[in-house]
Amino acid sequence: MDAVVTLFSLVATHSDLDLETVGTLSSGAADVAGSVNVPAVTLATCNRLEIYAESPSDKPEDVSSAREQLIDAVAESSGLTRETIASSFCTLMEDDAVSHLFEVGAGLDSAVIGEREIAGQVRKSLAEAQSAGTVSGNLTKLFETATRTAKDVGTRTALGSRGRSIVSVALDIAGDMRGDGAEFYRGASVVLIGTGAYAGTSLAQLIERGVSDIAVFSGSGRAEEFVSQRSEALQAEGRIRSLAMEELSQAFRSADVVIGCSGGNRQITAGEIRTLAGLGQPVEQGGRTAPLTVVDLALSHDFTPDVADLDGVELITLESVKMAAPSETEDSVEDARAVVADSVQQYLTERRERSADDAIVALRRHTQQVLDEEMAKVRKHHGCTAASEEVEFAVRKIVRKLLHTPTVRARELAAEGRTEDYVKALEDVFGLEVAPREQAVPEDSERRTPAKRRRAEDFSPAELAQMAAYLRQVPSGGFCRHHRPGDFNVERLDAVRHIQPAEPLPKAG
Description:
The protein has helices at residues 19-25, 60-78, 82-88, 94-105, 117-132, 137-156, 166-177, 197-208, 223-228, 232-236, 248-254, 270-277, 318-324, 330-355, 357-382, 385-415, 419-430, 461-471, and strands spanning 6-13, 40-45, 48-55, 90-93, 189-193, 213-217, 240-242, 257-260, 292-296, 313-316. The chain is an alpha/beta fold. The strands form two sheets. The chain has a six-stranded parallel beta sheet, with helices on both faces. Strands 2-3-1-4 form a four-stranded antiparallel beta sheet, sandwiched between helices.
């Protein structure tokens, strides 16, 4: 049997690396899968970069080659050295890669355990890979199942029932820092920098908390479009508006909170914050006296670290969120892990059973070819449609029964991870070569097409005469002389329809 594809993943997450390194690795992540010649899906979030891929076979050299391609692609897109990239990624193979993705999608590996945003990011990563044409059927099945598992965790367990997310935890921290908690936001003024997915989530959270003044700014000029896609009622009430560059300084001076989630290449420095917010300036010159809370939700950082050193400014980063994230109850986590474990086992079992399909197809193709060859000899020798079809019907029935047990055993052995044993048996006993279904049948293949039923004009006069002699022995409405009427219902050819049938066979008993 030809070597089968092998699943593996390259994983870099908040659990092993600082978020700044993860952010640098993620630079240009969207282009990685499209720059290699192996099927791949990239999952990039605020605290992880993971690439799920397939090597063309299970040979170590092929797996290593596929991995090296991806590392080279990440190095080129991020600007980091190849050695740094290689040491940053953890490689997971086959079952381990499956289990990890399912846990990630369920929120069990997030900085905020149980957060629901990651499930949408898993679904989005698959959609992007499908749009770019970098995904295989196996990877599609993997990610779709991971998404369904995340949904099952949400409906069957209490994990994430409090709706915690990185954004919500960051806003909770900001509210607590200002001393008023949830009440702080009701009269707060917020500047939101960015128009991506996190900006949308942040906006929804701010509105839910009752913020009445939200100004959106985008360095790429998409703020107006972003705002226009939101509720007209919110815009009419003046709760949300877009900012032009010339309005940014005034917005900063009146803001209580500035949230950055653009993830752009340019960072706002402490000096720029000081100027924009009027820090240290006299009140009569537009300076501010109220504290300013800066929330940096961008993986690559929207603000430089020295912003935290400014007087009157509190900086909240993803690292802050990670450390302050509330823990879920032990029971809810265990329940979620049980759901994930069951889903992983079911997926792996089905995957192994699918791996037996190639062997089953090969065996059936072999028996079909032998049957077609033998039936061709029968037709050539007897030249009688009724007789040959009777023989073919009986033979096909026997073949189906003979194939039943080998088919069942193939799936049983596959579920046990013993597909190779089954394939080896086919090769030793029948001399069959089992090729993967993805392998196209060569144009010069000797595979036979199913035999076609012959038409009346295809028979010679001698064959029709022999058929007529046989049909005189067949009871009216019968299929052949060995069956009673009603056992089969086969129309006779017009050329022999006038022949008088024999009397029906007497009923037994």
